[in-house]
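Figure 6 in text form: structure in, sequence out.
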């Protein structure tokens, strides 16, 4: 099979070293007897010749590709990038993680939160605030301490813990004055003691899972924020809601973050472009190989 890794970011140079996950996917595809290549979405162009669409990559006709694995790392309006997806799918090329639903929710935590809630899945209590004059009322409704999140950000960026209104207001002032963005106020799950679960979903299956623990003095358990990971055995309920959460936002491959509360497991986040270096190190599972195996099953 000829597999394309579709990256939506522009490399600094054509010789820029690809991320760990992209390199591992290439290696796994080659190890399983496939051809694989990275395609950067900004280098695509399209030509309408009479009734036929011609697709070019890096000023050359697009080479034969059986399937793309999308790694959606853009922050702009998704409609800019959906043109590429629409063009590729119109000529019969399957792209994993590229539904309109997935693209629209890719970089907006709030959109994903709403989709997860609409699917009836358990999440921490939260409120989306657009009018900062209501922030005190909304915060009191959630209760302190609480977590403040911005619409975008990965690796734990854009996440703040506030203990009271006095510590919340300066954060709100900075984020709304400098960035003019809405904010998510979310219930803080104290009993989790700085731990959560990262569950890697492929289709209807759990490929790997780990428990992450924040470093001392830190609320974010993300590996990129200094958190530590270890293998974890999931309950059936945790497995089921992880798969359901990925489906709710239109993803076939996803990293689902779950927190264990006194009321049961809650969905924190669904990631469309999950890193898996820390997950592989913590569990010893070949996540990249598992992704390529899933791709093989999908293509059959």
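Output sequence:
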């Amino acid at each position: 099979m000829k597999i394309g890794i579709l990256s939506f970011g522009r490399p600094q140079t054509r010789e820029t070293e690809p991320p760990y996950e992209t390199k591992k996917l290439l290696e796994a595809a080659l190890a399983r007897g496939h051809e694989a290549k990275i395609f950067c979405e900004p280098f695509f162009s399209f030509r309408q010749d009479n009734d036929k669409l011609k697709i070019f990559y890096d000023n050359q006709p697009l080479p034969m590709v059986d399937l793309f694995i999308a790694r959606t790392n853009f922050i702009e309006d998704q409609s800019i990038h959906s043109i590429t997806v629409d063009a590729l799918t119109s000529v019969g090329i399957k792209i994993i993680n590229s539904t309109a639903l997935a693209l629209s929710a890719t970089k907006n935590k709030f959109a994903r939160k709403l989709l997860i809630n609409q699917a009836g899945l358990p999440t921490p209590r939260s409120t989306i605030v657009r009018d900062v004059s209501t922030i005190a009322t909304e915060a009191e409704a959630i209760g302190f301490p609480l977590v403040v999140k911005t619409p975008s950000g990965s690796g734990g960026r854009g996440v703040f813990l506030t203990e009271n209104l006095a510590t919340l207001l300066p954060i709100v002032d900075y984020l709304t004055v400098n960035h003019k963005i809405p904010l998510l106020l979310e219930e803080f799950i104290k009993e989790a003691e700085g731990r959560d679960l990262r569950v890697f979903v492929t289709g209807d299956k759990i490929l790997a899972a780990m428990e992450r623990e924040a470093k001392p003095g830190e609320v974010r358990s993300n590996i990129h924020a200094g958190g530590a990971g270890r293998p974890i055995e999931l309950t059936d309920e945790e497995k089921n809601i992880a798969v359901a959460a990925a489906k709710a936002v239109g993803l076939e491959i996803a990293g689902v973050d779950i927190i264990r509360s006194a009321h049961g497991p809650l969905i924190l986040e669904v990631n469309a472009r999950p890193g898996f270096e820390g997950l592989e190190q913590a569990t010893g599972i070949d996540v990249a190989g598992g992704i390529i195996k899933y791709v093989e099953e999908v293509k059959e």
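Caption detail: The chain has a mean pLDDT of 87.
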